[in-house]
Protein: Acid phosphatase type 7
Amino acid sequence: MSWALELGCKERVDPFNATVPAWSAFRSSDYGYTRLTFHNGSHVHLQQVSDDKDGAIIDDFWIRKDTHKAYGDLRQTRAGYL
Structure:
């Protein structure tokens, strides 16, 4: 079973700050909404849908939980938390 959530609003977009953060991989000033789908306890799928481009998906990524432990049991390494 998957759960889907679509988020959006009626307002137009605000301009971006001129300074691009190091972690920012993608920016768009298109008007649209985010589609968030929870597939199970470890996989979430996010899609940015552009209304300005007739519903085209302009960004798409997955978040996956690799380690199934209580957060208090995780240890930090160079690669992240394990």
In short: The longest strand covers residues 56-64. Residues 1-9+28-65 form one domain. Residues 13 and 54 are 17 Å apart (CA to CA). The radius of gyration is 16 Å.
